[in-house]
Design brief:
The protein has 251 residues and is an all-alpha fold. The protein has helices spanning 20-32, 38-47, 51-60, 63-71, 75-79, 82-85, 93-104, 108-116, 127-137, 139-146, 152-166, 169-185, 191-204, 213-217, 221-227, 234-237, 241-246. It has 17 helices and no strands. Residues 1-5 have low confidence and may be disordered.
Length: 251
Amino acid sequence: MTATADFDTYTRLQPQRIEPLTALRAFRKLVANKEDTAQVFEIMRALSGRSLARGYNHMLKTQEGGRQAYLAEELAHKLDDPVWLARFEPGTVGASYRAFRDARGFTAEGLADEARKIGPQIDAQHPVVWYSRRIRDVHDIWHVLTGYETDALGEACVVAFSYAQTRNLGFAFIGWGAAREIQREVKSVPARRAVWQAYRNGKAAHWLPGLDYEALFAQPLEVARMRLNIRPASVYHAVSPEVRAGLKLRA
């Protein structure tokens, strides 16, 4: 659940100052311990700048995005509701997402708990902070839509796709940094090309943060991909699952 308030009545919500050294330190910790997911949110915090406010304002410029902003629903609450998820027929985006998370034991609240390690303001009742939660909560949905798995290369690609969608430098930093580490580990893996393709795919796709995700979940997955112009991840899928699973930089 979200907190009732985290800001003093007269405190202005300032744009996050870019902190590249903080991001670099967090990335080194993440490479040393791949399970330390909180470092991902530290990188995002350090490099978000004005991207969150700009993203929220972008929502207001479209009819559906504005409606979603007005409703301000918490996606995490629905995504962790098994009764809600059970509504979606086989082959739909919702069913594919359900299978994705069941296979991995993921929960939206678990991801939120990692974000809270960086700062309690993530639960604040403020529209820009709500938008940041939305970007956090759609991460695994974007895995399903793009076809990238949760191996290290897949994570690097999905955050590169996310950078194109959100312009949050944290995504670019993680994606390119992970690709560099993977390329060092196994030179034959085209990590940089895969990440570059993911970024280009993100630019070509329709803008995803402002979608009605409940309506999207009811659509057939392939139909949704075509409608949203999400291109195939051909470079990523050219790397065998066995090679991807064997990378030491596991996501």
